[in-house]
Design goal:
304 residues
Length: 304
């Protein structure tokens, strides 16, 4: 029995070890594990003594795996993946996750995904949804987030990104802007106009209109913002031409505060992803992603 007891303790500590290795921080790992940092630190110290090796190099700013711990970490990932598979096989198909923490861009959440997810939650008694709306790209290994929605493929290769739809775009300007500036008949004409830049976490968003491509908005760019909602407002005020998601300007076009420019020219289709830290997710999370994907198809924003 002593060996069996030791195996149980090791298996429990493996999950703690992996979380610290992923987040590279005892504080961030403790937050995700919902335990005091002092307790986590003590458990890892005890684990190192039991194994007889140092698992982490610790500094005031960073926590990194030692060279001897690297292969052990890879094996631990396999152990946890196997444990997760076993657990989900036992889970009832009706089992629900009591709380889901979701991150997404502000405009995407307000205009599209927030209401869809709220519809889903209203059908699940006892389910709580915590929204984190921000322009920043969350780190699923460091932040207490279960699911993130992002436009564009994530840069982090560790995460699992599932494409659930595409966001159509178009060029839009206020009628008064078009009346006071030279006529736009082809994409190259944009270089002689005031255009509005969208700032992303990787820099300015590139423009692609017809056969023309620019690293950022062409022409004179007096304004930039990390919110398409704000760019829409600026465009409505006649301050320039904006490349915007088509869904966000629907009401503006109906109210004639914006009109589409160069409608005959092709503009980007931005991929929309549901992102998780692991390929193995809870049944509740899987059902939520499926619900969102179906809703996007019905609204013509997803892929048929």
């Amino acid at each position: 029995m002593p060996k069996m007891k030791e195996s149980w303790e090791t298996l429990a500590d493996i999950a703690l070890f992996v979380e610290v290795a992923k987040t590279q921080s005892f504080a961030r790992a403790a937050t995700r594990l919902e335990m005091p940092p002092s307790t986590l630190s003590r458990r890892i110290n005890q684990m190192e003594k039991r194994l007889g090796v140092q698992l982490f190099q610790r500094t005031t700013r960073n926590v990194a795996l030692t060279s001897i711990a690297q292969p052990y970490y890879q094996r631990c990932l396999e152990v946890l993946a196997a444990a997760e598979r076993a657990q989900h096989q036992l889970a009832s198909s009706h089992a629900q996750q009591s709380k889901i923490r979701i991150a997404m861009p502000v405009d995407l959440g307000v205009e599209i995904l927030g209401p869809i997810i709220a519809d889903y939650a209203s059908q699940r008694s006892g389910l709580r949804i915590d929204f984190d709306l921000s322009a920043r790209a969350v780190d699923l290994y460091r932040d207490p987030i279960d699911l993130a929605f992002r436009i564009g493929k994530p840069m982090d290769e560790r995460v699992i990104a599932r494409k659930i739809g595409s966001i159509a775009s178009g060029l839009y300007a206020a009628p008064k802007y078009l009346a006071n500036h030279s006529k736009i008949t082809k994409s190259s004409d944009l270089e002689h106009h005031h255009c509005l830049n969208l700032q992303t976490s990787q820099g300015f968003m590139a423009w692609a209109v017809g056969t023309q491509h620019w690293q950022s908005a062409p022409g004179q760019c007096a304004f930039a913002a990390n919110s398409v909602g704000l760019l829409r407002t600026l465009a409505e005020r006649g301050l320039g031409i904006a490349l915007l998601p088509s869904h966000i300007v629907q009401s503006s076009v109906e109210q004639k505060t914006l009109v589409q420019v160069l409608a005959h020219e092709a503009t980007p289709q931005w991929p929309l992803y549901a992102i998780t830290a692991s390929r193995i997710i809870s049944p509740e999370l899987k059902q939520l992603i499926s619900f969102v994907k179906i809703a996007l198809v019905k609204s013509a924003l997803g892929e048929v």
